[in-house]
Amino acid sequence: MIPVVLVTGFLGAGKTTLLNHLLTAARGTRIGVIVNDFGSIDVDAMTVAGRVDSMISLGNGCLCCAADTSDVDGMLARLAEPALRMDVIVIEASGLADPQAMVRLLLASEVPNVRYGGLVTVVDAAGFAATAADHPDLARQLKLADLVVLNKTDRVDSTAELIRTIRTFNGEAPVVSTTHGALDPSLLFEVGPNLPVARQLSFDDLADHTDHAHARYETVSFTSDDPMHPVRLMEFLDNRPAGLYRMKGFVHFGVPGHEDRFGLQTVGNYLRFHRSPWPRGTRPATQLVLIGKDVDTDQVLSRLAACARTDEVEQRDMLWVTRYVAEE
Ligand SMILES: Nc1nc2c(ncn2[C@@H]2O[C@H](COP(=O)(O)OP(=O)(O)OP(=O)(O)O)[C@@H](O)[C@H]2O)c(=O)[nH]1
């Protein structure tokens, strides 16, 4: 029986980072991955690709909104195909997905050689207080968790109080602190002999979900083949609308000496670029996914379009960007 581990967590908590870590740290384990990304550009899938044995992307879909079990079973059956010799299947839920609905789908699966392997909830230690106050869905993700990963602990002074608060939502699940999702894979699946036993859901847990979080958020994608102007893009980023909770993707500046691909991540006020070469065969282009609440998407898209380069760019203009480039 192949365990199916569900990874959930609020937007930007570090689910993809955790998944990438698992894929790297458990190289000997064959991990099948289902990525449930929002937006028409599958940025997470692009980041994950290349490191994964087998991956299915839901593209624009949402697992918890899947019409019926057969959709989910179709994906699980593909990954559980004996020829693939999978040891574990990990599903990265979108930050907005309803874990309860997803757990229910997995428990109802009729694929004979898979079993539900538990729910992991990733929490952003730095953003926890603000997120918990605004988003009741986080409470639900915590309540159902079999394991809580308290991530981004490098961004807080102490975790003791946070762990106490998490315990008020879920007194049973272990809380493991991590930075950059560096969780020991054996906590999730069989690297050693001990398998985690998923918690049984109560009747109440299985009740229908009503206030589905998606409705309150909007996702919009921006793409442009024209290189972006570093100063104008940074002006946009410095003044991004308050409700624009999350941005991720890749930016093409094409400035001499800076022709690389600039991966962009924003979570709340946090902003970082990661620099890397464009994968061979890819045409440089800017591709961004923006997720927000009460954001005027037309205005955001036209503001971004206005950041495309029409006039000359000095090499030193890139300094506005490079101060946000993360040290690898
Ligand atoms: N400082 C710090 N940054 C982190 C840590 N873990 C992840 N990040 C950064 O946080 C940002 C979001 O991480 P992701 O792994 O993409 O988060 P996610 O939960 O998959 O995001 P969504 O799929 O949009 O919900 C990225 O810029 C990561 O590099 C950490 O432990 N410390």
From TrEMBL:
Molecular functions (GO terms): hydrolase activity; nucleotide binding
Coiled coil: none
Gene3D superfamilies xref list: CobW-like, C-terminal domain, P-loop containing nucleotide triphosphate hydrolases
InterPro entries per record: CobW-likC_sf, CobW-like_C, CobW/HypB/UreG_nucleotide-bd, P-loop_NTPase, Zinc-reg_GTPase_activator
Any one of the GO CC terms: cytoplasm
Domain CobW C-terminal: 217-308
Signal peptide region: none
Name the record gives this protein: G3E family GTPase
Organism lineage string: Bacteria, Bacillati, Actinomycetota, Actinomycetes, Pseudonocardiales
